[in-house]
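Changelog note: in this version the structure field was regenerated for every chain. One regenerated record is shown below for reference.
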Amino acid sequence: MNELITYVMRFLKPFYEKKDAALQYKNRSGNQIIYGDPMQLQQVLVNLVMNAIQAIPEQEGAIRITADRTEEAILIDVADNGHGVPAELQEEIFEPFVTTKNSGGTGLGLSTSRRIIRAHQGVLLRSGTEDTVFRITLPVQAEPGGETQTVSSVGEHSTFLSA
């Protein structure tokens, strides 16, 4: 996942630099291996970071990506100090065609992202009170021989990713 997150940060650099925003990444997950479709996981990360970029204020915007690990899961948080999700949309933000954007946006990004993460046997949730935080949780399963990895049977292009 570390390589994937780093790639997404480089890919979206022109967008957050245009807003003069700060983007921080902390990897506290070590070198955990995740089995999944890197293109689909990349799509989720691009969507979450792009949503954060669009939500943050000019010149004062901040986005934080954090990768962490528990015994059971890899946790990836994408947090921003933007305008947040309106109270009336809190419950339906992951439904298709629901958007908080005034112009543009189809309202499919979060519903597609949640579907992809569920296909990887994970969870995508929104949390945060002052900052908006979207958390990806991907389960870790013990393998024979003592190694742990996240297992998924998603797509033909499944591969191991280092977290």
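Spot check on this record: The domain at 2-162 is CATH 3.30.565.10 (Heat Shock Protein 90). Residues 144-163 have pLDDT under 50 and may be disordered.
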